[in-house]
Design goal:
The protein is an alpha+beta fold. It is built from 3 helices and 3 strands; from the N terminus they run H-E-E-H-E-H. This is SUF system Fe-S cluster assembly protein.
């Protein structure tokens, strides 16, 4: 695959991730800053490095599965793995300006 094709698949992944919302905060997980990185290889496998708002997050089991399932539903993706990390720990500073505006923090 070309770099352009990989970039396009990465953009598609970001678009689908933006349809997933944190159940406690009315902002999508991408704008919340929970997605740290998205990788796509030549075999059309995706790996997403993400965090949760806290280690005790009530959706710690279901949210990563939802991300995997939605990304796997993309026609250009054969497989997806989500890795959860708490390094660095998520803070409100990781939210986009859009998220902060939505939550009345600006």
């Amino acid at each position: 695959m070309t770099d352009e094709e990989i970039q396009e698949i990465g953009d598609q992944i970001v678009r689908v991730v933006k349809t997933i919302y944190d159940p406690e905060i009315p902002v999508d997980i991408y704008e919340l800053g929970l997605i740290y990185d998205v990788f796509v290889n030549d075999e059309k496998e995706a790996k997403i490095l993400m965090t949760l708002t806290s280690p005790n997050c009530p959706v710690a089991e279901s949210l990563p599965r939802e991300v995997e399932d939605k990304v796997k539903s993309l026609p250009n993706i054969i497989d997806c793995e989500v890795e959860i990390t708490f390094d660095p720990t998520w803070t409100q500073e990781m939210m986009s300006e859009e998220a902060k505006l939505e939550l009345g923090m600006l």
